[in-house]
Design goal:
The structure is a single chain. 33% of the residues lie in helices and 12% in strands. The chain is of the alpha/beta class. The chain folds into two domains: 174 residues, Lysozyme-like, CATH 3.40.80; 73 residues, no CATH class. It has a six-stranded mixed β-sheet, with helices on both faces. Strands 3-4 form a two-stranded antiparallel sheet. Strands 9-10 form a two-stranded antiparallel ribbon. Strand 9 and strand 10 form a beta hairpin. Helix 1 packs across helix 3 and helix 3 crosses helix 5. The mean pLDDT is 87. The structure holds zinc ion. Zinc ion binds next to loops.
Length: 270
């Protein structure tokens, strides 16, 4: 299995998906050791439901030292990036392609703030961010939505989280987002390629592009506020002038005027 190391790209990937992100101090150095390879996302709820849930995820409990997950998803859709290293969240369980009873070293945990008792319906903005966050991570690691798993699906310890989310429907939506290639962030090389391409169209006076533009539209420069048209054509552009010529030829043709039979010039009716 390829080694990819800690997901130090987490915050960037989430932001590139258009999500709100809070990077907690020291997150890149927080964890219970280093990842070998990241192969999926495990979805949880915090079982709290309040604005301080993240503290337990970061600091742990008396029986379990933090961090307990790499990410906390707030009810307003904001992601808190807690840790880049391994976290204690998966427990015992199994899933196709994942290490049995040992997923912490292979998957990223997202703790979504929710009471988990049914007392807190998932806000649309949080659910949307949940799917987009999972999709962004899976796209980054080259995996499909089949590696986006509920803790209750992986766990052999009777977990129920995340409460109330139909994971098959969730995965369908996640896959749709993964497949939205146009939403993928552009690399620096791709940005430069586009910038260079655009520069070609706003080149200096005398550039090929400017010459072509003026041949079509008349003397002037777009940068100077527009084209003046061609003085030889009474200020018309080349296209407008040709259109006017054709109109007049049609008018002459309607009168059976022989003057339009120009040798070598294709007849309109031919
Ligand atoms: Zn859980």
């Amino acid at each position: 299995m390829a080694w990819s190391g800690d997901p130090l790209w987490l915050a960037d990937v989430l932001r590139a998906e258009g999500l709100k992100v809070i990077e907690h101090d020291g997150w890149k150095f927080r964890g219970h050791g280093d990842f070998g390879n990241v192969i999926g996302v495990l979805c949880h709820h915090t079982a709290g439901g309040g604005e301080n849930d993240w503290r337990i995820v970061q600091n742990g409990r008396s029986d379990l030292p933090g961090p307990l997950a790499q990410l906390v998803l707030e009810r307003d859709g904001t992601y808190r990036v807690i840790a880049a290293g391994v976290c204690w969240h998966a427990g015992r369980g199994s899933w196709n392609g994942w290490p049995t009873n040992n997923a912490n070293y292979s998957v990223i945990g997202i703790e979504a703030v929710n009471s988990g008792t049914g007392s807190q319906p998932w806000p649309a903005v949080q659910l949307d961010a949940y799917k987009r966050g999972c999709a962004a991570i899976l796209r980054r690691i080259g995996r499909g939505s089949g590696d986006c798993v509920a803790h209750r699906e992986y766990s052999s310890e009777g977990k129920i989280d995340p409460w109330g989310i139909d994971m098959n429907a969730f995965r369908r939506d996640v896959q749709t987002i993964i497949d939205r290639k146009g939403d993928a962030p552009m690399s620096a090389a791709e940005v430069k390629q586009i910038q260079d391409f655009v520069k070609g169209f706003v080149g200096p006076i005398g550039s090929d592009v400017k010459d072509i533009r003026e041949q079509l539209c008349g003397l002037g420069q777009r940068d100077a506020g527009g084209y003046k048209g061609w003085p030889q054509l009474n200020g018309a552009t080349l296209v407008d002038a040709v259109a006017e010529v054709l109109k007049r030829l049609d008018a002459l043709e309607a009168k059976d005027c022989p003057v339009i039979n120009i040798p070598g010039f294709p007849d309109k009716a031919a």
